[in-house]
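User: What would this chain look like folded?
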Amino acid sequence: MSTLSMSNAVSALPKLLGNLEHMLRKGEANAIERGIDPDVFLNARLAPDMHPLYKQALMICDMAKMAPYRIAGLTPPSYDDSERTFEELYALIAKAKADVEAVTVEQLDGREGIEFMVKLGPRGEMPFTGIVYLSGFTIPNLHFHSATAYNILRHNGVPLGKIDYFGGGL
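Assistant: Here's the prediction, encoded as structure tokens.
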């Protein structure tokens, strides 16, 4: 019988980043195919007070790469979040995947109960344990922003289906 370890759970993060890349690539290809400036999709949003597609991708990359570092008690890499093109976003996704995978099994396992604080904008600092941060905050946020990216692309006519949300396969 195997158990779910922190390193095992963190291994879902590169897959979620890959799913995002798959959706973005389909979006870019659709824009080119339809003769639409790709910036139209990258700057599209579902509502005036929501972040545009490129920002959804930035937030996914930031949250994914921060999680294993925070859980391991390490300082997460800092990104400048200046990416605004599909190519720049693909490079950022690759960088975030590499950063997630750089945190070792030994640095993660056994840290389920470790306590730490995370600054969450105007809400201030919030206390977390490793497992709650990953399973109750990071992964739900990644799915929220991934679903929002999916919905922005669908709203703009990109032919995505549910399987595309999962990176084109399971």
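The first helix runs from residue 6 to 10. If you want, I can go into more detail on any region.
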